[in-house]
Amino acid sequence: MTGELSVSVANGIASLEFYHPKGNSLPSDLLSKLAESISRLGNDNEVKVIVLRSKGNGAFCAGASFDELLAIDSHESANTFFKGFGHLISAIKNCPKFVIARVHGKAVGGGVGIIAACDYAIGSKAASIKLSELSIGFGPFVIAPAVIRKIGISAFSTLTIDTKNWKNSDWAERKGLFNEVVDGDSELDDQVNTLADQLASYSAEAMKEIKAMLWEGFENIETTFEKRAKLSGSLSQSEVTQAILTKFKQGS
C-alpha cells in the first residue's frame, strides 16, 4: 500500500496526481517520489508550470502515513519518518517553476504543509484543514516554517493548539493559505486550468525570479527541517506519545 503517482505533461503544464487508499495519505516512498518528480520537472525546459493534485473526491491529503508512524521503533526510524515532508517542501521551494495546489477536500498535518509550500492554492468550498499532531504527543514542527510563511504565527498557533476543530475553506482563504475558493470540483478544475494556461504563456525566467523573491529569508529552511525532524522523532519516542500510539495499536 505504497500509493500511486501519475505524471503527465501537455502544453507546458505538468500535472502530478497522487493517490493512497487511506485518505490520500503520503507514506515515505510516495513522498520521495513526489519530491523527485517535482525536482525533475523543475529542470525540464518543456515544463512552465506544475499542478499538484490528489485523486478522487474524498480527502485532499491525510498527511503522513499513520501506519508508518505506528511502526516506528527507534529514534533513527523516527527521524527518517519526520524528514519526509521537509524534503517535499524543499523540492517545491527549490523548484524554479510555480506549483499550483488543487485542493478539493480535507487536508491534515503534512497535507497543510504541502498546500502552504505551493506558490498558489485554489480550494473548493468543501476543502478544510486541521493540524492534529499535538493530540498525538508532538507537533507540526517540520511543516511550521512553510505554514507560518503563508498564514502567520497567530493563525498557525490556532491550528496547532486547536487540534479537534476543522477550519473551513473560507477561514483558509482569509488567513492566506488558499489564494482562491470556488464552489465545486468542476469550478475548481476550470480555475486551475485557466491559471495554469495563463502561467504557461508567461516568461519562465520572470516566474523563476518572482518565486525566488517570494521565498527570500528562507534560504536555510533545510537546516530547520533537519532540527525539527529530530525534535519530532524524539517526542514520538516519549512515554506520553508511546502510550497514545499503543492505544491506537490496540484499537486497530
Describe the sheet with the most strands.
6 strands, mixed
Q: Which strand order spans the largest sheet, edge to edge or round the barrel? A: 1-2-3-4-6-9
User: CATH superfamily membership, which one?
Assistant: 2-enoyl-CoA Hydratase, Chain A, domain 1
Figure out the total of helices. Answer: 11
**Radius of gyration, taken over Cα atoms and rounded to an integer in Å:** 17 Å
Query: Which stretches of 5+ consecutive residues score pLDDT under 50?
Result: none
Coarse morphology = globular
CATH class: Alpha Beta
* Broad structural category: alpha/beta
Quick check: average pLDDT?
94
Q: What fraction of residues sit in β-strands?
A: 15-25%
Order of helices and strands: EEHEHHEEHEEHHEHEHHHH
| Span between termini | 17 Å
Count structural domains. 1
**CATH architectural label:** Alpha-Beta Complex
How many strands?
Answer: 9
How helix-rich are the residues, as a percent range? 40-55%
Question: What would you note in describing this structure?
Answer:
The chain has 252 residues and is an alpha/beta fold. The protein has a single domain (4-204), classed as Alpha-Beta Complex (2-enoyl-CoA Hydratase, Chain A, domain 1). It contains eleven helices and nine strands. It has helices at residues 28-42, 66-71, 75-94, 110-117, 133-136, 144-161, 169-175, 185-200, 204-214, 221-236, 239-251, and strands at 4-10, 13-19, 49-54, 98-103, 106-108, 120-124, 128-130, 167-168, 180-182. A six-stranded mixed β-sheet has the order 1-2-3-4-6-9, sandwiched between helices. Strands 5-7-8 form a three-stranded mixed β-sheet. Helix 1 (28-42) links the parallel strand 2 and strand 3. Helix 4 crosses helix 6 (144-161). It is globular and about 55 Å long.
